[in-house]
Amino acid sequence: MDFLTESLRAALSLILALDPEVVGAVWTSLYTSMAGILLAALVGIPLGTLIGVGHFTGRRAVLTLLNTLMALPTVVVGLVIYGFLSRQGPLGAWGLLFTPMAMIVGQTVLAAPIVANYTVAAVTGADPRIINTALTLGAGRLRAAWQLLLEVRFGVIAAVVAGFGRVIAEVGVAMMLGGNIRGYTRTMTTAIALETSKGEFAFGLALGLVLMTVALVVNLFLNLLQQR
What we know:
0% strand; globular
């Protein structure tokens, strides 16, 4: 018990002192995750809306594929993208491997199926008369789809929040594509794994507390929007 108490005290000291290592890992986690979820939303929300309102051959197969992609292990995603970005890969000349951009690409691939799937659920559960009414009143298809998204905006926001929670807490993609480079691609999760294995439990605990705080703030924000 004394070990945990002392570690917690040391962790809080690191946070309050704005330790550069802690701040650097937190900043890298936040900006790569925010960039990844933004790109995932730009892909997933329109795709989810199209699948949700569409009636086409193979729709069930597409939904099954989305559900499968949601459960993909992060190391598998990291492995595939690593193959594309490595020197021998088709995109190796771009020099993206072991950079924040590579991590953002991996996080986008992880989050996009989640955002799309949650958007499908939100759109499918909406009143089917919304689009028909908008079309009857003279709106174009894009305008009608936008009106539908406004009606299910809380479900869409929940989709984005779920995707953000997935990417900010993952380890595999960040480790394989970012390389856990100190001061450059080291995130909260990779730093926790590394420092704890080195016996720096207090440092890992400090980052764990920050990670939990970020998750709490995001969920409080979602609840506040839903109440309004």
